[in-house]
Amino acid sequence: MDEKPRIGMVGAGKVGSVLARLSVQVGYTVSAVSSLHRASAEKLAAETGASVVSSAVETAALADLILLTVPDDAIAQVAGQVAQVSLAGKAVVHTAGALDTGVLQAAAKAGAMVGSWHPAQAFAAANRAGLTGVAFAVETGDARLREWLLNLTAAFGGRPLMIPPGGKVVYHAALVFVSNYTVGLYAVAGRLLTGLGLDDASVAAALNPLLTGTVTNIQQYGIPDALTGPLTRGDAGTVAAHLQALGDCDERLQALYKLLAQVTLPVAMAKEPDRDFEPLGAILDERNDHADQRA
Ligand SMILES: NC(=O)c1ccc[n+]([C@@H]2O[C@H](COP(=O)([O-])OP(=O)(O)OC[C@H]3O[C@@H](n4cnc5c(N)ncnc54)[C@H](OP(=O)(O)O)[C@@H]3O)[C@@H](O)[C@H]2O)c1
Known about the structure:
The chain has 295 residues and is α/β, with parallel strands linked by helices.
């Protein structure tokens, strides 16, 4: 039977707002919302038909599935607050990427089923319309809660990901590479182009279609075939020129470029197995770094 628990939200920020709105859209009841500031809770409650309550423990009293969508550092403390009442038959779940269920220990002691349910998506604002196709890392030792979370994931059109015990930190680090550090690398590229005198519109014109095209290539061709550029061509001279120019403007960027090239070179080698990569390998050889430092 597709059992639909009443959902209580603690934390009416970006993730909490999107999950609560979607839950209502797919036929769940969001029964109560609380947040640090009442105004946030009131806004989300108005959008979802939920009751506004003033504490996590009141949220827990009105819900079966209590979602803690608060900052990571607040999760253990809020779990302690909801654990002031018996939580038998209820579930307490957080949505943090790098934390496992250990952070909900207090709620587990109060009888709750505990779990984590992490949408692998970047919520830059609270207005994301849907989560179709998004992976949700589901982690719980409780069969009933697993079913609740799998049903919700399916109702959102998401895809469940089972992370092995102890794997959440590495899982989250992987997502940070592809999401947050893409933004960081975009910012680096933007700074370099701004340094050449390009205005913001020109920077966006140069980078945005390139970024979109790269993502499309990854989706269409996968790794290694999506890789283009001097590494795949074995253009050692171009890579040497990049390193020289970056060293002239910012040594940290030179080091970053070199490290990225070192970890990307095996992808180029996989794509072009018959190409001679020795000249590139020599430029990127870590042992040369130490030789440089000794010189
Ligand atoms: N943002 C993402 O891309 C993303 C993606 C996946 C998972 N997550 C995870 O989702 C969780 C929430 O992240 P978020 O980005 O939605 O954060 P957020 O936008 O900053 O929202 C956090 C909310 O928690 C409320 N809050 C803070 N401390 C609280 C407390 N002690 N008691 C009750 N409510 C409290 C805040 O209240 P007020 O608004 O009332 O001040 C805010 O509404 C985190 O665990 C995060 O790791 C985030």
